[in-house]
Amino acid sequence: MTVSASPLPRTRTAIARVPYVNCAPFFHGLPYEESWELRDLSPSQLGRDAEAGRIAAGPMSLVDYLRLRGQFARISNLGIAVRGRSGSALLFSSKPLRQLEGARIAVTDETSTTALLLRLILEVRYELCPQAYQRSGPADDVDACLLIGDAALIFRATDRRFPYEIDLAFEWWLWQHLPFVFAVWAIRNEVSAEEQHRLTRALFKALSVNTGQLSVLAQERSQRLGLSADELTAYLANFIYRLGEQEEHAITQFERLIHEHRLC
């Protein structure tokens, strides 16, 4: 992904767009203001740019929001979560999950939150100690590989190397009996109230339309991802974009666990 290293002019509001299909309900047909500048960023790059002051708002990875919440406020109850399987927070493995003691695990550099979820599942739930986590794609010398988003969807459809596929959000569901929250919409505190209101209204408008036409979003992205529109429609239907009481409880529990086990 191409990422600008310099801040935008003060007259523009930099809004991060994560270009995964599961974020499309927020951005497809988003009523666009001339004062906005959309930037396509992976979740991890979004967090880095937010910390550096280059991003005013975006669907921020939960871990990055928790780290930067003194500088950012949440936008209503908007976010990205699942109750059960995500279909795209996937650990592809040469061994069953409980046999990954001493394993070498590749972790995509696009993830912030899912990387910590992986550690919670392996190290806390199953009390395993992998030999190493390395930031890379599915290298030849690893026992397992963590991928997220569109890359996970594409790899899942074509992989012939790893016989085991573990959906980490589903592992969390089985363990905690809670949804898993990947991201929350957040906006920098100093953005004007008027600008915050315009963005909030635009996001709710786009989301209201798009959640009623998931098949349209799926059809538009089907060829690029190499998946059928029906598969993508079912995938998108897994996600929760307006977080409720269960999702808020899940955020609290996730934060408690990562601090208790000193994973951040």
Keywords:
D-Maltodextrin-Binding Protein, domain 2; 2 domains; 264 residues; 11 strands; 5-stranded mixed beta sheet; alpha/beta; 4-stranded antiparallel beta sheet
What does this structure look like?
This protein has 264 residues and is of the alpha/beta class. The chain folds into two domains: 13-82 and 179-260, D-Maltodextrin-Binding Protein, domain 2, CATH 3.40.190.10; 89-176, D-Maltodextrin-Binding Protein, domain 2. It has helices at residues 24-27, 43-51, 62-68, 113-125, 149-158, 168-176, 193-210, 214-225, 229-236, 245-260; strands at 13-17, 36-40, 57-61, 72-82, 89-93, 104-107, 132-135, 144-148, 164-167, 180-188, 239-242. The strands form three sheets. It has a five-stranded mixed β-sheet, with helices on both faces. Strands 3-10-4-11 form a four-stranded antiparallel β-sheet. Helix 8 (214-225) crosses helix 9. The longest helix has 18 residues, at 193-210. The radius of gyration is 18 Å and the shape is globular. The relative contact order is 0.20.
Q: What topology emerges from the helices and strands here?
A:
Blueprint: E1 13-17, H1 24-27, E2 36-40, H2 43-51, E3 57-61, H3 62-68, E4 72-82, E5 89-93, E6 104-107, H4 113-125, E7 132-135, E8 144-148, H5 149-158, E9 164-167, H6 168-176, E10 180-188, H7 193-210, H8 214-225, H9 229-236, E11 239-242, H10 245-260
Parallel strand pairs: 1-2, 6-7, 6-8
Antiparallel strand pairs: 3-10, 4-10, 4-11, 5-8, 5-9
Helix pairs in contact: 4-6, 8-9
